[in-house]
Design brief:
With about 450 residues, the protein is α/β, with parallel strands linked by helices. Helices cover about 40% and strands about 15% of the residues. Strand 9, helix 13 and strand 10 form a beta-alpha-beta unit. Helix 8 runs antiparallel to helix 9 and helix 12 runs parallel beside helix 13. The chain is globular. The site of beta-D-fucopyranose has 13 residues, from loops.
């Protein structure tokens, strides 16, 4: 019998799902996102409500993750629960997080804990949030309290989730709170969030010298509509530089590149302030020069016609499903950081309510992660976004990223085929021919090309 082809992942590779506090816990009424929902900014008119009810029953979903033979899980802490008013610490919130973390350990799921994932306590937002550099000290005080309280249960921290998205969506596009359209303010917020990460890194390091500490960025590809057009090429390169690489460079060196360094103060002690690079990757945009869009550097973004894409209606945020992109991003981060730290895919996912593209998408993205590993890029784990459908910010319940479907009103869960597929991959620590055959046979040639040169061709950059 012919031997089964397989793509095996390194020993100890972390397999998990990613989530955040506000999107899963339910009942979070004390942060700026809740207020934003009440003000009617959610496109579907919905609210986070009970979300996935994790504040009361996260354990039942942790059990599902264990059944899928995941060995890790990324979850967030809600600052507004832990410090509901300035300087007042709610120890019962810490107790609840201790229960959750203990349960993760009991189920052999290594916790990766996010300290800030888009939500700010109302009192902090009302003092100007991260627009004001002086407010960073509040964040550090919270981080210190949390790490002192939970250090026996967690040694793998993610300080700040996607500072580039928080700044861009909140201060340029205005679709996240505070809903502004001010590029200069966005850049200051971005800078302050990076400084918050750096200071958090050192605060955690002091308390827990052996902890693994990092942050993550959202990496998005911007490709020119026509590579023959100098203007399309220029504006897509500028968007790419601003959205992706300026922040990474600032994190690595403490300085933003020209011309941003004229406006933004350097970040002290930045270089060396991370133990890993967190990579979130979802999609790519095609960019055409458009003189009417100064706020987006004169580039109009759109989804490549004919592309396989996420569910309709999400185009602005989640368009094309483009597996080669994850390889290109891993390579870009690796090269720009000269391989100085391991990388983790801290998020990658697809909104696909009917689960008719997700199995293939997961397999093809993982094949590209495997390719990066084969080429020597040290990727230590993959966290699929997300375990159970959750409250997707401005999209409300209109985006369905879960391996498990959730009816938020009845709280009923229905695993999608992708859930059992992901479980099989985690169990095998590999993609096998049999898994591809059963879940997405149409991906077979992409995943197991006849020769490596074919694979190289399919992923040429
Ligand atoms: C990322 C966010 C995460 C979730 C996914 C779909 O940008 O970090 O909270 O919304 O997108």
């Amino acid at each position: 019998m012919a031997r089964q082809r397989m793509l095996r992942f390194p020993e100890g590779f972390l397999w998990g799902t990613a989530s955040s506090s506000h999107q899963c816990e339910g009942g979070n009424r004390n942060n700026q996102w809740y207020r934003w929902e009440q003000q009617g900014h959610i496109l579907t008119g919905e609210h986070s409500g009970d979300a996935c009810n994790w504040w009361k029953r996260a354990e039942t979903d942790f059990e599902r993750a264990e059944q899928m033979e995941n060995n890790a899980l990324r979850l967030g802490l809600e600052w507004s629960r832990i410090e509901p008013t300035e300087g007042w610490w709610n120890s019962s919130a810490i107790d609840r997080y201790r229960q959750m973390l203990k349960e993760l350990h009991r189920r052999h799921l290594k916790p990766l804990v996010t300290l800030h994932h888009f939500t700010d306590p109302l009192w902090f937002a009302d003092r100007g949030g991260f627009e004001n550099e002086h407010n960073i000290r509040y964040f550090i005080r919270y981080v210190t309290y949390v790490v002192q309280s939970l250090q026996d249960l967690c040694d793998f921290w993610l300080t700040v989730n996607e500072p580039n998205v928080y700044a861009f969506m909140g201060y340029v596009l205005g679709s996240y709170p505070p809903g502004e359209h001010n590029v200069s303010r966005a850049l200051h917020v971005l800078r302050n969030l990076m400084q918050a990460h750096v200071e958090a890194f050192y605060a955690i390091r002091r308390i827990q010298p052996a902890a693994e500490i990092g942050y993550c960025l959202d990496y998005r590809l911007f490709d020119p509509a026509s590579s023959f057009s100098p203007l399309d090429t220029l504006v897509s390169a500028v968007q790419d530089a601003f959205f992706n690489w300026a922040t990474l460079q600032a994190a690595e060196t403490g300085r933003f590149s020209f011309p941003l360094n004229m406006a933004l103060a350097p970040i002290p002690r930045a270089s060396g302030a991370r133990d890993y690079h967190g990579v979130n990757y979802y999609t790519r945009d095609i960019v055409r020069f458009d003189p009417t869009r100064p706020a987006e550097f004169f580039g109009k973004r759109y989804v490549r016609p004919g592309a396989v894409h996420n569910d309709p209606g999400l185009e602005g945020n989640f368009g094309e499903i483009y597996p080669e992109g994850i390889y290109r991003v891993l390579k870009g981060v690796y090269q720009r950081t000269r391989g100085n730290r391991p990388l983790y895919i801290t998020e990658n996912g697809f909104s696909d309510a009917h689960d008719d593209r997700r199995p293939r998408a997961i397999l093809e993205h993982l094949a590209m992660v495997h390719r990066a590993i084969r080429e020597g890029i040290p990727v230590g784990g993959y966290f699929y976004w997300t375990l159970v459908d959750n409250f997707e910010w401005t999209e409300g319940w209109g985006a369905r990223f879960g391996l498990i479907e959730l009816d938020p009103y009845s709280q009923e869960r229905t695993p999608r085929p992708s859930a059992s597929m992901f479980g099989e991959i985690c169990r095998a620590n590999a993609i096998t021919e049999s898994i591809v055959e059963r879940y997405a046979p149409e991906a077979m040639d992409f995943i197991f090309p006849q020769s490596d040169s074919e694979l190289a061709k399919s992923a040429s950059v």
